[in-house]
Amino acid sequence: MSSDVDSLKLQLKSVLRRKHTIDKIQSQLRTTERNLTDEISVVTNEISLLTEQLEILVNGISEVNTQIAVVEICKASEQCKMKEQVKSLNQHVDGFKQLFLKEQSVQVQDIKAKEAEAEELKKKELQLEEEQKTIVSALEKETVMIERECAVLKKRNNAIMLKLRRQLLEANKIRQTLIKNKQTDF
C-alpha cells in the first residue's frame, strides 16, 4: 500500500505539475487574449477614425467637384459676356474713329485759324515791346536825371547839416559861457 501511495503521490505530483503548467499556459493565453483584445479595440478605433476621415475626404472631393463644375459654368458665362463686350467695344471704337476723323478735320481748320491769330498777336507783341523799350529808355534817362538831382540835393543837405551842426555847437558854447557867467555872478 505504501507503494500504491507513493505511486499515487507521484502521479499526484505529476498531475499537479501538469496542472501548474496548464495554469501557466492558461494564464499566458488569457494575457495574450487580453492583449489581442486591446489591440483589436485599438485597430477597430483606428479603422473607425480612418473611415470617418475617408468620408470627410470623399465629401470634400464631392464639394470640390461641385465647385469645379460651378467654376466651369461661370467661366463659360464670363467668356460669353467678354465676347459680347468685345463686340460692343469694337462698335464703339469704329464710332469713335469716325468721330475722330470728323473732329480732326475741324481741328485742322481751328489750328489754321489759331495760327493766324497767333501771328497777329506776335506782331502786336513786337509793337508793344518796341513801345515798352522806348518807354523804358525814357524812364532810364529820367531816372539818371533824378539820381543826379538827388546827388545834388544830398550834397546841399549835407552842407546845410554841417552848417546847422556848427551853429548848434556855437549856440551850445554860448549857452555854456552864459551859464558860467551866471554862476560867477552869484
Relevant terms:
single chain, 186 residues, mainly alpha, 1 helix, elongated, coiled coil
What would you say this structure looks like, in words?
With about 190 residues, the protein is mostly helical. It is built from one helix and no strands. The termini are far apart.
Fold topology:
Elements: H1 2-185
Summarize the structure.
The chain is mainly alpha-helical and 186 residues long. It is 99% helix and 0% strand.
Major sheet characteristics: none
- Total strand count, please? 0
| Helix/strand class | mainly alpha
Radius of gyration: 65 Å
Distance between the termini: 187 Å
Query: What would the average pLDDT be, to the nearest integer?
Result: 89
> In percent terms, what proportion of residues is strand?
under 5%
Specify the helix fraction band.
over 70%
List the helices and strands in order. Answer: H
